[in-house]
Design goal:
The longest helix is centred in the first third of the chain and has 32 residues, at 32-63. The radius of gyration is 20 Å and the shape is globular. It is mainly alpha-helical. It has a single domain, classed as Methane Monooxygenase Hydroxylase, Chain G, domain 1, CATH 1.20.58. It has helices spanning 3-6, 13-16, 19-25, 32-63, 67-91, 96-106, 115-124, 139-149, 154-165, 170-199, 211-217.
Length: 236
């Protein structure tokens, strides 16, 4: 053992990642199928948090007329969504009987109740307030969503930025917003595919139409103020 190792003061890898706390909270110690199902959803929520942080920083950058930073952050988001889609691919490896068993344990809980996903929609500009009444949301969940609604949307901030900056970086940002929007549509379609694989025409756990609802949601844009001609509504 070197002197540097013996007297090390820098935090170790596991300490930086707070792995002891993370793995204690994660569902990795359940039986294998359940661990896969729940951990995939936990991982998606972590990535949703990362997406939210990026979108918040994009909004701040545009407010400061820093289009280059906004574009760089936005261009990263479709790759993050691709990672989230891969979690659904892993879920597709479950056997139908395992999925049915896990789903029965969930009761009425559902990914439809993902507050962070609704925050992403509200932050971007898809502000269907009907989702405030989602069954299973806690008071603090609705409070978070109302706080998002009280702030300017990314769509609105971008329109104001474009009015000030003209074409400088605006085309690049618009292209990045389109690509991110399309990647989220792809995520919804993959989610619909998984729902069709395991549920068929059975309603979703949160009382939605299941796969049919998810397929309809894929036609909707995150940015109705920007891409009205591509949208058939708001929400997700």
């Amino acid at each position: 053992m070197t002197e540097r190792t013996a007297t090390r003061t820098e935090p170790a890898y596991g300490e930086i990642l707070r792995l002891d706390e993370l793995l204690e909270l994660a569902c990795v110690n359940d039986e294998a199928d359940r661990a896969l199902f729940l951990s995939a959803h936990q991982a998606c929520e972590i990535w949703f948090a990362v997406v939210l942080r990026h979108l918040e920083d994009v909004t701040d950058a545009l407010s400061l007329d820093d289009g280059a930073t906004a574009a760089e952050l936005l261009e990263r988001l479709p790759r993050i969504i691709t990672v989230i889609i891969e979690h659904f691919e892993v879920l597709g490896t479950l056997k139908p009987e395992a999925f049915d068993r896990i789903r029965a344990d969930l009761g009425s809980s559902s990914g439809f109740q993902s507050v962070q996903y609704r925050e992403i929609e509200y932050l971007c500009g898809a502000r269907d307030t009907r989702f405030l009444n989602t069954a299973g949301f806690r008071d603090r969940d609705r409070r978070r969503l109302r706080e998002r609604l009280a702030k300017r949307s990314l769509s609105n901030v971008f329109l104001e930025y474009r009015g000030r900056a003209g074409d400088r970086d605006a085309c690049r940002i618009s292209d990045a917003l389109h690509e991110f929007d399309d990647s989220v549509r792809a995520l919804r379609l993959r989610h619909a595919g998984i729902a069709e694989l395991f549920l068929g025409s059975i309603p979703g756990t949160a009382g939605t139409a299941g796969a049919a609802y998810l397929r309809r949601s894929a036609s909707r844009t995150l940015f109705p103020e920007l891409f009205d001609r591509r949208a058939s509504g708001t929400g997700g």
